[in-house]
Design goal:
Blueprint lengths: L1 E6 L6 E6 L8 E11 L1 H7 L16 E8 L11 E4 L10 H4 L23 E5 L3 E3 L15 H11 L7 E5 L5 H11 L2 E6 L2 H10 L3 E4 L3 H6 L4 E6 L7 H5 L2 E9 L11 H5 L4 E4 L5 H14 L5 E5 L3 H10 L5 E5 L1
Helix pairs in contact: 3-4
Length: 333
């Protein structure tokens, strides 16, 4: 029997929940959960913001733990190994995307917290093809957020050929943005933090930004016209996107990893006349997660976390909802 915490209704408190997982499948592993980050996506699933939640729902997709069991067909993982599990808990391994290494684009990928019980539990099961070993030298208590927040901002560096000579801006210095600053700095980029928080400017510089701009200062953004090769937006709110497009160089890219639900109101001529692009990306493949972990180890990149016990899970969720968390919340056992 797996003991977990589940939400039974939108915005409801999490309560104790138990379920019988059945026999371990040949391609599965079972993980004893030691840590689990709480991501804003967990809140979206708890609240059914995306219209895909089935209750009771066990959130938790930034899992760090130890393998306790492996299925008969699992060869690359062993009991006792430190591993992590992110947004996906399985892939079809049959489609062109899986065959080309883009497992995160698999149409049959199984989300860890949609139609599947996640990591707010003492154990979690997942297909072995979605579980990634954690290299020695990564601090386990802070590793969980790397499996969602970390790979979400690292994956675009791989996908869009970001160069060490590029000038890059990060919109929003929060759970995603504070990691983006660290990765981009270590990548070699000249990094600008775009934030409306005066309190975050000094810390943004400590985390890796070379410059800061007030994201609410229209004059400052106008003065930055044609400055950036790449802008990554980590926020989930509506902004004046045309103003940000104007800060891009010709052939520059405005890239979204923050899930804003409002339609994008864009001046197409800003794209056409300068060959600018707008794009988005989800989390990364297991292969990309492995690269991200090794890069994080080499450059000593880690999220800034606040720790809570699993027993205080509702307090931890309330902290994340408040918007005052600094910067990622992690449940610890």
């Amino acid at each position: 029997m797996i003991k977990a915490y589940a939400a039974y209704e939108p915005k409801g408190e999490l309560k104790s929940f138990e379920y019988e997982p059945g026999d371990l499948k040949p391609d599965e592993v079972e993980i004893d959960v030691h840590y689990c980050g709480i991501c804003h996506s967990d809140l979206s699933i708890i609240d059914d913001e995306w219209g895909m939640t089935s209750y009771p729902v066990v959130p938790g997709h930034e899992v760090v733990g130890v393998i306790s069991q492996i299925g008969a067909k699992v060869k690359h993982l062993t009991p006792g190994q430190n591993v992590g599990l992110g947004w996906h808990s399985g892939y079809c391994d049959q489609c062109n995307h899986c065959h080309s290494g883009d497992h995160n684009l698999c149409a049959e990928a199984q989300p860890s917290i949609v139609g599947h019980h996640g990591g707010f539990a003492d154990k979690v099961r997942a297909a072995a093809n979605s579980v990634v070993a954690i290299p020695d030298g990564i601090e386990l208590e802070s590793a969980g957020p790397l499996f969602c927040g970390g790979i979400t901002v690292f994956n675009p560096l791989l996908q869009y050929d970001i160069k060490a000579t590029d000038k890059v801006a990060v919109i929003g210095i929060g759970g995603l943005g504070h990691l983006a600053l660290q990765y981009l700095n270590a990548w070699g980029c000249e990094v600008t933090a775009l934030t409306s928080s005066e309190a975050k400017k000094g810390e943004a510089l400590q985390l890796g930004a070379h410059h800061t701009l007030n994201s609410r200062d229209e004059d400052a953004l106008t003065a930055a016209a044609g400055s950036f090769d790449f802008i990554i937006s980590t926020v989930n709110v509506k902004l004046d996107w045309n103003l940000y497009l104007g800060t891009l160089k010709p052939k520059g890219r405005l890239h979204f990893v923050g899930a804003t639900l409002d339609p994008l109101d864009l001046n197409v001529f800003q794209l056409i006349m300068t060959q600018r692009s707008v794009s988005g990306s989800p989390t990364g493949s297991p292969a990309s997660i492995e690269k991200m972990l090794n890069f994080s180890k080499r450059h000593q990149i880690a999220p800034v976390i606040e720790k809570y016990s699993f027993e205080n899970i509702n307090e931890a969720i309330a902290r994340l909802r408040s918007g005052d968390s600094h910067y990622r919340v992690v449940l610890c056992r």
